[in-house]
């Protein structure tokens, strides 16, 4: 049985009645198979699963898609039921931020200004602030996040470590369509033609991974990924395509690495990433 609550008081009532372990899966709704995979992974590890559905105004820039972000609570509940979630917490903005936009926010540090943070100023302040609030409200043993939002996952792990938040953060590999496109709620914005163009991102990652598998060094891996993206000619507008340390630390890259890409397809901004194994001696 999946219960739906909207207020923090009702959430607290259900939460305090749960014996055993609790996992949380935080989402902005418009649930797809990527979310469902997170829910099933949580179900396997914990006695109780809480899903949060909240389109967090704090993480949207003034020209971004907060107003038009898809809100599909009824079908989201079906996904949650199918995946065996115990509780869905879908608060209103006024319940999450009763005092209005918070003056005190989590500072994500230098990594929060890079990559996604460079294109979306304030984004990670907003994300980490709501993630910390939702962790306080749900008090989970485990929190599940998708690798699709790799920088977010990295920063959530770092916040929990740096601020001694007592939760195990679990990363879940990216779920893709058969042709490689990473599932994302924002894929709904794409026209048929744009969806074809959006394959530039996963194509670039696959080319980079293949180049690394052939023993090429970091520079050649990046060149292969850029060529496959079709820089300048794919119809997608590249924001960044970078090969970094798996913890997103600055410095030389060798051994295990991460290839990350962000691009605009029409009005829609998409991100993707993949693990890459480089020669440790390279
Ligand atoms: N394809 C996917 N595979 C695995 N996890 C995913 C996938 N898509 C989203 N998630 C994870 O689900 C959680 C909630 O994400 P969110 O609700 O923002 O969905 P989204 O598809 O990433 O949306 P958007 O398109 O707005 O970025 C995050 O931890 C996110 O990384
Ligand atoms: C973690 C999150 C639910 C915070 O609003 C959001 O950034 C998301 O859906 O990835
Ligand atoms: N999927 C991460 C949340 C965001 O893009 O706003």
UniProtKB/TrEMBL annotation:
Recorded catalytic activity of this chain's protein: (R)-pantoate + beta-alanine + ATP = (R)-pantothenate + AMP + diphosphate + H(+)
Residue numbers annotated as active site: 35 (proton donor)
Residues that, per the record, bind ATP: 28-35, 146-149, 175, 183-186
Keywords assigned by UniProt, alphabetized: ATP-binding, Cytoplasm, Ligase, Nucleotide-binding, Pantothenate biosynthesis
Annotated Gene3D superfamilies: HUPs (3.40.50.620), Pantoate-beta-alanine ligase, C-terminal domain (3.30.1300.10)
EC number of this enzyme: 6.3.2.1
GO cellular component, one term: cytosol
Statement: the UniProt record of this protein carries the keyword Nucleotide-binding: yes
Residues that hold beta-alanine according to the record: 59
GO-annotated biological processes: pantothenate biosynthetic process
Pathway: Cofactor biosynthesis; (R)-pantothenate biosynthesis; (R)-pantothenate from (R)-pantoate and beta-alanine: step 1/1
Location of this chain's protein in the cell: Cytoplasm
SUPFAM superfamilies found in the cross-reference section: Nucleotidylyl transferase
Keyword Cytoplasm: yes
Single Gene Ontology MF annotation: ATP binding
Function statement: Catalyzes the condensation of pantoate with beta-alanine in an ATP-dependent reaction via a pantoyl-adenylate intermediate.
Subunit field text: Homodimer.
Family: Belongs to the pantothenate synthetase family.
Note in the entry: The reaction proceeds by a bi uni uni bi ping pong mechanism.
The protein's name in its UniProt record: Pantothenate synthetase
Organism taxonomic ancestry: Bacteria, Bacillati, Actinomycetota, Actinomycetes, Micromonosporales
């Amino acid at each position: 049985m999946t219960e739906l609550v909207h207020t923090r008081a009702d959430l607290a009532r259900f939460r305090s009645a749960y014996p055993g372990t609790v996992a949380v899966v935080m989402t902005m709704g418009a649930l797809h198979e990527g979310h469902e995979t997170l829910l099933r992974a949580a179900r396997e590890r914990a006695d109780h699963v809480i899903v949060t559905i909240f389109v967090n105004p704090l993480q949207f820039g003034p020209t971004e898609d907060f107003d038009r972000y898809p809100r599909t609570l009824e079908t989201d509940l079906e996904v949650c039921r199918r995946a065996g979630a115990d509780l869905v917490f879908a608060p209103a903005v006024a319940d999450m931020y009763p005092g209005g936009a918070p003056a005190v926010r989590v500072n994500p540090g230098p990594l929060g200004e890079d990559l996604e943070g460079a294109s979306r100023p304030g984004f990670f302040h907003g994300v980490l602030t709501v993630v910390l609030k939702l962790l306080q409200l749900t008090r989970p043993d485990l929190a599940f996040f998708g690798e699709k939002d790799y920088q977010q996952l990295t920063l959530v792990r770092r916040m929990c470590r740096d601020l001694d938040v007592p939760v195990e953060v679990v990363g879940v590999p990216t779920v893709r369509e058969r042709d490689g496109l990473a599932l994302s709620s924002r894929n709904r914005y794409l026209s048929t033609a744009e969806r074809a163009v959006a394959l530039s991102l996963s194509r670039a990652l696959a080319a980079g991974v293949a180049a690394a598998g052939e023993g090429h060094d970091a520079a050649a891996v990046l060149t292969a990924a850029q060529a496959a993206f079709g820089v300048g000619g794919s119809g997608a507008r590249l924001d960044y395509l970078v090969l970094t340390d798996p913890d997103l630390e600055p410095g030389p890259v060798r051994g295990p690495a991460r290839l990350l890409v962000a691009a605009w397809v029409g009005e829609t901004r998409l991100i993707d990433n993949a693990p890459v194994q480089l020669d440790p001696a390279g």
